[in-house]
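Q: What does the predicted 3D structure of Kelch-like protein diablo look like?
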Amino acid sequence: MAASCVVAGKSTAEKKHKNSDYGNTFLDGLNKMRFAQKHCDLVLEVGRERIKVHKVALEIASPYFAGMFGKKRVGKVKLKDVSINAVKTLVEYVYTGTITFTEDNVEGLLITSDLFQIDWVKKQCEKFLESTMNSSNCFRIWSYSVANGLYLTKHIKELIMDDHLSVRSEDSVYKTVLNWVKYDQNNRKVHLIELMSYIRLPLISPPFLRNNVSTEPLLKEDPKYDKLLLDATIYQLTPINEQKCVPGRVRTKKVTECYNENFHVFLLGGADTNNGFFNVHNRCKVYDFYRRKLVSIANMNSRTCKNSAIALNGTVYSMGGMCGGSSLKTAERYDPINKRWDYIAPMAEARSTFPICTHNGLIYVIGGLTGGTVERYSPAIDKWESCQSLPCSNYSRFSSAAVVDNNIYSFVRNSWFSFDPREGCWRTLKLMNNKTCFRVVSYDHTLFCIGDGENKYMDVRVNRWESMPPKTKIAPTSAVVAADNIYLFGGIEATRPFTFDCSVERYNIRNNEWTIVDSTEIVHYSEGIVAVDGCFNLNCMAKKRKKL
């Protein structure tokens, strides 16, 4: 006698079945309703012709129509600059899942499927064009692809995906893509999210990500972008020592050394030592880190040492300094087009050996050997403006400053201060007491304090100092941040008797380790120094220099 397991009067036997023809049957039924014009709730108007369809069918098949229907009640859509035959063929595809390409209809279908954002049909059109291309039609197809942005779209995608792309920052990549889309917004915005997915969003500067990227109206229209933006934000909020490389997004040092060390160091002015005397000069040199090449450029107008240098929007500036035992008010900027230095408005106060930094398009000079006054310079109007002075009475050559999260942090002797440019006032901070903090630099949300003793860094969001591994140099003359690393120049070797060190030491922020940069020797003493990211034609500079 057969037995079955029964619990509370119900059998436990269960088997799911799927009708493999159901989808086709459903579409066939929906298509018959279209032909009979049953329950059609949308009319497509192309010229004088009217095509009755079901909204739900177009909304499922086309993001273009889905976005249109989601905003308002639509009963009729007028389509302009499209082929009626292409629209009819695509409607047929929506209801049947099949489509036929010919040499006569493929171009119209490509344009219309791109408009409707029916990606599968668009890709099949492109494949069909490639498969039918021959000597008689290749120029026509090429001209057509250029005219409709197919060639350009493909190559801009390849460009921004390139790990060897040489850019000043990932902000530039974002701006380029957005400007390209906005140039022909109606036809190109369909590519925006795909192109954005290839940008290394975690590498975009936090203020730019917060103030520009997250507020861009074109991006806010697409929910797919929320995930990309969230990933980038989480990455940037993670402390540096816990950050991991984002696969496929971040241009890392392992991928290309060229990208990471594609920057130049400007050495401006300084002093030569001759029989115990210091001879101040106005010579300028540029060191190409990738090529390990040092080239002279045009001399500055004034001799100076103990000056400060900064780069803003790709322009290099030299401020103040000392000559003949007196501090200077003069300031200059380098003109890369005419290969010369030009004076800009002088500072109100003469100063030397002073911190310099940039914030929100302005250059700030802070204190120095002559006092605690603070000024800021606007390149747009070539004008200096006084700010609140530092709240301390003792000044030192061991002072430094850096910008983190809209605040300027300044170290003077063994005291820390912060300045909020929006409020215009200084605050005294209770931070680490370190009398030998020669240089302060910043990266993302983090301050790095580097001197001849213990070196430390602090994520200002958690307000806690962490120790860094020991370095070779005892007292670096200068420190700059470039390509996700900190570079130390000049300084004193850890030997007895002390000797000047001409090597360059690099701190890898991600890996928390120091290394001596191979084959790099830069004589650096008492001159302004600044790092500039990106390409710089040293050969042109060298040729120009020989003619002077």
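A (community wiki): The structure tokens above were generated from the sequence. Residues 22-35 form the longest helix (14 residues). The two ends are 111 Å apart (CA to CA).
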